[in-house]
Amino acid sequence: MRVNVARLRQFSSWRNAIQEKNHSVNAFVHVAPPAVSAVEHDVPLRDVAVGLKDMICTLDMATSSSSLMLKEFKSPFDATVVSLLREAGADIVGKLNCDEFGMGSLNIHSVHGPVINPFQLPSSVPWAEREKRSAGGSSGGSAAAVAAGMCYAALATDTGGSTRLPASYCGVVGLKPSYGLISRWGVISFADSLDCVGVMAKDVAGTKRVFDVLNAHDSKDPTSVSSAVRQLAAQEANKAWPTSSLANLRIGIPQEYFPSELSDEVLTPVRAAIAGLQSQGATVVPVSLPSTPYALSAYYVISSAEASSNMARYDGVEYGLHVPPPPGSNLKNTASIYAHTRSAGFGPEVQKRILLGTYALTADAFDNYFLQAQRVRQLVRDDFNQVFRARDVLTSSPANADGVDVLIHPSAIRTAPPLEASGDDGIGTYVQDVLTVPASLAGLPALSVPVQKEGWPVGVSVVGQWGCDDVVLRVGGFLESL
User: Fold this and answer.
1) Alpha helices per DSSP H over 47-163
2) One GO molecular function term (predicted)?
3) What is the set of active-site residues?
4) β-bridge pairing 173-176 and 91-96
5) DSSP letters for 305-346
6) Span 337-364, mean pLDDT?
7) What confidence tens digit (pLDDT) does each residue in 114-150 have?
8) CB-CB contact of 22 with 15 (8 Å)
9) Whether this model's pTM surpasses 0.85
10) What is the rounded CA–CA span in Å between residue 171 and residue 168?
């Protein structure tokens, strides 16, 4: 068998970086050995190193979701996105740390320990002794691995901001695609109506390179959108913004996305980025999305309710952790038997969300919480449809000829918080998602692009109409070049 020595060296370079840096970042929880094919193929991701969030199933590596419940679980198949990456020639370098079952904003709720942000301000202190800050969550391992140069790109998941928030904290590009464009088959569920597979890379071009490989209909995923609908959305986007000139681009600045909690270290570079696009010919207009203040509360009700349903499958009987009941237990009571496994296997954050979601679905609370949250979700969608120039092809909403092509706003209300201060499980941790959840509730594409030239990374989010992912990526390219 003929093996390309240059390719072996390239594979080794990524793994050398992992070996050198991962002990100080804790991004990788499993590193795969190089699998070099002797066949030379002209494929789009040939030899590109890609890391996978530990919620994406792989045949040859364990998939734990960073939970004790699935610590030894090994999937009997590859997720669709993994199969597509392998077919495109990608080198799957390993699995990446995350918040347990994707539940968290700071990547501190993991059986593997917290992920440490690899960024360091100019300093004489050795890199391994740098200031320890959060990498963001839940896909902190994905963002940190890309930021530290341990892989070219990484797959994440995004339920309410889990791709964009860590991308902002670590200074990388993070894309949450339109809901239904990338297959979720083989991706462990948190909240099915919200979950998306995200893509992270150092730049917009790298992100688009991986996204284009994954952007395909999958008959195994019932939420995967058909090719015909994808083409229709692309036509609508092209009709609204037919050229790549900023002179024809209308940018909306939602006033509700600049809350009082927004720090000055974020506000200043975001304003500079908007001014930079405007100076190059883009039209910037203020817009209002009045349902935004209610989006965060609605998101946590809906996501927790769906999570409580999804987590019910982990009962210690079919797969995953099993904790035998102690002697003397009532073995005829199934709930009691399940409780021992679930109490030991789930961490406190997952248990908290299961309890919240279960309550929201009870007969007494269903109307006041879950149904109300769904109504707010529809209002959020309506707000977006009223401001975008492109038509929403998934509904009968009419186009707004005077609307905007994209929205631009901060990705996070602050820069990465110190890790030692991230252990507070109060409401402050949930507020981290306040700027990212509206796009998730509406299923819209959203891209976080780093814009801070000095100091800790700051991300700016570009949000587009459903299916207008290419528009979002093109605008992200302009932001990147400022």
Assistant:
1) 80-87, 140-147
2) ATP binding
3) 53, 138, 162
4) unpaired
5) HHHHHHGGG-SSSSSS---PPPTT--TT-HHHHHHHHHHHHS
6) 95
7) 999 999 999 999 999 999 999 999 999 999 999 999 9
8) no
9) yes
10) 5
